[in-house]
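I'll show a sample.
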Amino acid sequence: MSAFAWKSFYEDEDRPEKPRTYGVTEVRGPHCSLFSQNLLEDIFESMGEFVDGLKFTGGSHSLLPKTYIREVTDMAHKHNVYVTTGDWAEHMLRKGPSAFKEYLEECKQLGFDTIELNMGSMGFPEETLLRYVRLIKNGGLRAKPQFAVKTNKSDIPVNRDRAFESYVVPAPRSSEFIEDVDLLIRRAERCLEAGADMIMIDADDVCRQADSVRADIIAKIIGRLGLERTMFEASNPKTSEWFIKQYGPKVNLFVDHSQVMDLECLRGRNLGKNHTSVLGSSHFPF
């Protein structure tokens, strides 16, 4: 049970205690700025009950001393927080299977639990990518393929300044996606069949500034893959708020560490769908 008097983890009202399989909050680790161990320890000590995973984004673990990485992963595991790599495994794939196996072994020795594969940035055949998913699983690690949802820019409304009552010619719109969503879902389904544990969805083009019709894309992905098997990157607090309002506290989100407490307030008891936003009035265009 939670040490916080205002927070409980009864399964029927929110989500269970860690380790959780849904309602997961994954936070961004060292990337643009170097996290000190003291800062990470403060995060885990103060909010560790609300943090499920720590991600070394942008291949940052490839630049850090191995001793530091090991200390961080040990600290995370002490607080029942899993550790995942970011966008880096795909660079090792280009060196061949043997180099990738060595990379997996090194990640395992450093204390990583999950390997993330950016499926959209690699030009490999689908069967090759599925073999790498199985290779990760056979190595005793969790596999988390990442897919990006991108839309045609003409589908994004343009905000323009205009004089009072002046007419603005509407911008032409297109129903064509740069990346076909049905194809993305089919590839993600095959990854799950191959043993992937979670599908990471980078939906910045959909969630950051697009209009309400793009909510159908999110609904389609969740409807086909399932809420528990998908994680969405929430690049800002308003995006997190929208996901919680639409899908309740059980949605899996990847956020910045600075958003953890606000996100947990949104996930809180009876705040899933009809809450007064702790972030103020929502301007999210959905």
User: Anything to note?
Assistant: The radius of gyration is 20 Å. The chain has ten helices and eight strands.
